[in-house]
Amino acid sequence: MSSRAAPFVLAAAFGPKLLAVGSKLAKSVKMVKAGLAGASAIAYSWLFSWQFAAIVIASLVIHEYGHVRAMRAVGIPTRGFYLIPFVGGAAVPERAFASRLEEHFVALAGPVFGLAQAAVLYALFVILGHPFLGAVAAWVAVLNLFNMIPITPLDGGRIVKSATMSIGSGFGMTVLMCGVFASVVLMFWLKSWVLALVALFALFEFWVERRSHRFTPDPYLKRMLPAQTAGCLFSYVLVTTALSLIVYGCLSVPEARLAMTLLQDG
Asked: What's the CA gap between 180 and 194, in Å, rounded?
């Protein structure tokens, strides 16, 4: 057998087996995603009600889809997103961000998609006046508003980190450290295990950033221009304000507040 023919012979011999293994891996990933989604639905139904669980799952799917679309828009390959019981969801990129602008754009996309969902529901609530539409709009807005808290690894924390790291590494690291401290304080104040996870990830992200700056020329990620940094902070304030207004607009109606309680309690 000639050396030129060898690759083709090997491909013919092992190609089908490799394809079969790849197909099984792909199916297993899909099964993992489906399993996690099912576990999330069961978990939220157990904690609250099946109606509330459906709202949470739909909100998470739309939110994480926003991240995936943003990743693809900037050329980042992605494995899609996973729903994680009791935690939320996570969109998984296949490479790291190349710049703070990419980091900001991807982080903002999830809350923007969530805001669009909440805005449509709020518009229907205003037009039709049905209290359950107001309750659902409020819940969707609240879930996305929580994600805008300026503490990593939440989207709000990543947006603020992108801006502050672009202003200066020292300033950005200080803000990250303040986020770690704030997450710990909130964890004990609200006695929330979810915030305990946030605090743990905030500390881990601070360590990653500190290590990256220690061993890599500064800045290790391309910074945003001043105008881009200002736009990043403005977009953060704009989306947060819009979500807050939707929550206020819905919960100012007593019937919507009652419907929100019924959704949660079942």
From this structure: 14
| Each residue's pLDDT tens digit, 14-36 | 444 433 444 443 444 566 677 77
All structural domains of the chain with their residue ranges: 6-265
Question: What are the angstrom distances between the C-alpha of 127 and each of 117, 120, 124, 243, 262?
Answer: 16, 11, 5, 19, 22
Q: What is the pLDDT of residues 107-119, one digit of tens each?
A: 999 999 999 999 9
Half-sphere exposure in the Cβ direction for 199 (13 Å, CA): 16
Could you tell me how many helices (H) and strands (E) the chain has, helices first?
9, 2
Spell out the long-range contacts of 64-71 with Cβ–Cβ below 8 A and sequence spacing 24 or more: 64/89, 64/90, 64/91, 64/110, 65/113, 66/109, 66/110, 66/111, 66/112, 66/113, 66/114, 67/91, 67/106, 67/107, 67/109, 67/110, 69/109, 69/113, 70/105, 70/106, 70/108, 70/109, 70/110, 71/106
**Residue from 77, 133, 142 nearest 111 by CA:** 142
What does the pLDDT read at residue 27?
Answer: 45
What is the residue type of 219?
Answer: P
